[in-house]
Amino acid sequence: MARPLPLGIVIGFNGMAPGGLQLLQPCSTLLYALGTCVVLRHKGDNRSQEFLEGHTNRVSCLCLSKDGQYLATGQVNYMGFTADIIIWDVEARKLIHRMSLHKVKVEALSFSCDANYLASVGGQDDGKLVVWNVRTGKAVCGSPVPVDYAQTVKFFNTTEDKLVTAGGMKIVIWEFDVAMRLLRPTEANFGKLRRTMLSLVIDGNDEFVYAGTLSGDIMQVSLGPKVFRHNGPKVKIEMGILHCAVTPTGDLLAGGGDGTVSLVKAESLKCVCSTKLEGSVTSIVAAFNSLKSGSFDFYAGTTVCNLYFVR
Fold first, then answer.
1. Contacts of 24 (CB under 8 A, 6+ apart)
2. Distance from C-alpha of 132 to C-alpha of 271, rounded to nearest angstrom
């Protein structure tokens, strides 16, 4: 009987997956989706590659836990079938849990700060937010969510019982009650301002959430009173902000649909500087290695399947 050929070395990167590029600290290994597998590549050697294989269709999203112990990956599937989520042990390079609950597509994933829980949202054919127990691989609780406000999800950075979803024209803060197995939503108040949310990031102290919009600006929302504070930069980023990341200095990196990567001050939301890459920027991951000059490094992935290293 013929055996499948094992992967040796691959050239490529799936730039269509939002947040599909991850960096294993201390900045030694890149993790990214390529077809049905996840590639682990040492950043200084293109030939030093390992592969996590287990999905039956294209990987649609990735999320790495804060301590780098776990990697969660979701996939797309055919209409009418469930899409798998896989939790991997990164150090052992092995599959721990396979979970199937979402229909057709897993849209986004997020680990809690201590990696005890994993949140997942399904695509437009699913409409569910689910919180999983990472140790057991079982669903703890879930909630139906309209498609217009569950396109991306993030846990808070300092507590495991709160998370945020964004999509459409809404940002929703959820309180996760483990004992009662409930998710309680509270919608952020934007007044008369309307924006279509594409991406979000939460600051390290859980004071504010920043959402990148289709209009090309960033919305700052206070997580305490759950109200809109202000937006910027004044000169909008064309084709929307597809991905946001926090820098080692606490500021923001905004990746635009026009290929622009902008450094934005968190307090004022003013653009400090920017550079242009080829393709729409769907992934940004900062290397937390501030240099003596005050600069820092980050990696970016684009829809034309290019990977960039930027200082």
1. 30, 31, 40, 64, 68, 90
2. 38
| pLDDT at 295 > cutoff 90 | no
User: 62 falls in which pLDDT band (50, 70, 90)?
Assistant: very high
Give the Å distances, CA to CA, from 241 to 18, 198, 233, 244. 11, 7, 11, 7
Q: What is the separation, in whole angstroms, between the first and last Cα of the chain?
A: 51
| Closest-CA residue to 215 (of 232, 201, 200) | 232
Q: Is 80 exposed, middle or buried (0-12, 13-18, 19+ CB in 10 A)?
A: exposed
CA 106-189-118 angle, to 5 degrees, is 25
Which residue has tokens 């307090």? 267
Which of these, 114, 205, 124, 121, lies nearest to 164 by C-alpha position? 121
